[in-house]
Amino acid sequence: MRISVIGAGYVGLITGACLADLDNEVYCVDVIEEKVRKINNKIPPIYEEGLSELLKKNIGKNLTASTDAENAVKNSDITFIAVGTPGGDDGSINLTYIEESAKSIGKALKEKNNYHVVVVKSTVIPGTTDSVVIPILEEFSGKTAGRDFGVCMNPEFLREGKAIYDFMNPDRIVIGELNKKSGDMIRELYKNFDCPIMRTSLRAAEMIKYASNAFLATKISFINEIANICERTGVDVTEVAKGIGLDRRINPNFLNAGVGFGGSCFPKDVNALVREAKEENYEPVLLNAVLDLNEKQKMRAYEIARDIMDLSGKKIAVLGLAFKEGTDDVRYAPAIPTIEKLLKSGAKIFVYDPEAMENAKGIFGNKVKYCKSIDSALENADLCIIMTEWNDFKEIYDKFSLMKNKIVVDGRRILDPVKAENQGMEYYGIGFPGKQYTR
Q1: Number of structural domains in the chain
Q2: Same-domain status, 144 and 225
Q3: Beta strand pairing status for 150-153 and 173-177?
Q4: Are residue 55 and residue 190 in the same domain, yes or no?
Q5: Average pLDDT score over residue span 323-347
Q6: DSSP structural state of residue 254
Q7: Do residue 176 and residue 295 come from a single domain?
Q8: Tens digit of pLDDT for each residue in 136-166?
């Protein structure tokens, strides 16, 4: 099929590259010329496992990047809207990019005769597609949705760091459809995928995305609350997580205790759902608690460090800046407020992350020291805090000998506490009944 994707960020570029790899002809559109140039030169503008290989394989064959949205729409049969919907301080989502995309698509549809399907893939509050996107498309095209062109809502369920794998191996595909003809075209696009394909209404598809992320965020906050209780009752939370995860009704996914969730999805989406609920005169007690606990949990590693020593003037090594492994994304990353608190305490911060250093520079500037290796971050450090679960950090027991004091706060529980202490380390882990309650 001929496909255009408006927005070449995490979702749009992954969607476009994967669909191109499945032998579709794809145009990825973005307003940022530098990003378009990089893509056409087979250079990923973001770090994502396998993306470089996909670009090298498909650019010049099935995949092209462009800044011309209208031309891309005219030369395709299906258009995905995959632009950002950034969140505001009040939890609202900004629909500016959605609206601008719909205008451009509408203008192109005005000059088309064949039946074209517009698919919203951006995460939007239930009702956005039918009350915002469709009216704009109709206004600028002069045509009627459902009769002259189709509309669907097809939410993404991609994990940053594993997005290409998730696209190619989905748990499910959800198609919210304005009418059957619209849904049939998108169903045909996904015909070779071996997974359940659910067809539903536009609003239900929009809500499925929010409900999925809200549930996963709830699961993370739940295990973090259990971890905080475990620390105080002499129980290792990893044993508890393993035990409850064996229950088929619960399963072990998203039961890794740590310093809270971050990224571009969970915080924004849960906040947006909370705001929407309140606008409908419903107080979402559970979701409010999820967000409150997560904000407190982000400070857990700092609190442990503060209780261990006077941080003023101390060299603190922070390993990990990205909100999770496999990405360079630092949006809402727990490492950010942790480092800010450490700086306010007068500590000297030395940081290392395999991929997220450049993005962190835009936040901290020259306030921290950016190290080229784990070794240089740890050398003569008074304390180390692990904030991201990169594989690079899982077998570094011998490197802690570089430190002035072999003290580590494991914010992601990726080290073996017994092995750490056998090597002379003073170990503090989230959900581990350690010395923080016996000092």
Answers
A1: 2
A2: no
A3: antiparallel
A4: yes
A5: 96
A6: T
A7: no
A8: 999 999 999 999 999 999 999 999 999 999 9
Which residue among 173, 200, 227 closes a domain?
A: 200
- Inter-residue contact 321 to 330 (CB < 8 Å): yes
Q: Identify the domain containing residue 286 by its residue range.
A: 202-439
- Residue-wise pLDDT for 210-256, tens only, equals 999 999 999 999 999 999 999 999 999 999 999 999 999 999 999 99
pLDDT at 89: 85
Torsions phi, psi for 81 (to 5 deg): -95, 110
pLDDT at position 66 over 80: yes
Domain boundary among 162, 182, 200: 200
Which one, of 314, 335, 344, 339, lies nearest residue 405 by Cα?
Answer: 314
Do residues 90 and 184 both lie within one domain?
Answer: yes
**Does position 407 have pLDDT exceeding 70, yes or no?**
yes
Both 81 and 33 in a single domain? yes
Residues acting as catalytic residues: 265
Phi and psi torsions of 142, nearest 5°: 70, 20
Q: Tokens 């609202």 belong to which residue? A: 92
* C-alpha to C-alpha distance for 195 and 57, rounded to whole angstroms: 26
- Comparing CA positions, the residue from 294, 374, 376, 300 lying closest to residue 341 is 300
- Give the pLDDT confidence score for residue 129 in this predicted structure: 98
Is 362 found in the same domain as 264? yes
Contacts of 263 (CB under 8 A, 6+ apart): 160, 323, 324, 327, 329, 331, 332, 333
